[in-house]
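Run Glcg protein through structure prediction, thanks.
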Amino acid sequence: MSVTLLRPATKLTHRGALLLVAAAEEAARAMGVPQCIAVVDEGCNLVAFLRMDGARVLSIESATRKAMTAAATGKPTGGIAPDKALLLAEATSGRMTNLLGGVPLIADGQVVGGIGVGSGTGEQDLEVAQAAVAAFMRAQAP
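Sure, done. The structure for Glcg protein is below.
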């Protein structure tokens, strides 16, 4: 009986991260809401970031944490039960968040990263993140 010691992995490239940032920026401009946009890989490492002119400085951190949370959980942020969200924040020293605006990036059935958007309302942040993920998915289609 052979034991598999390695598993194949699909990885997000810097070009993919930049496509996400550009698509999110376009959606934010169309909305008229300057945003902070963070893209992380599957290990929650920052790959690309943009703070649009006029976006809130403190949203740099929240956008990054939204991206990390989406990548780590494989689920959009904002839907975790309040009691579990508090535990999640406590267990990660506040590095993970339940604020709307984080969406995982999934390719070939694998989580390859996450995008986090912050500086608008939670609903605006989520809309911009979803627009970027939709552009990412279209770009992957054969």
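The first helix runs from residue 14 to 31.
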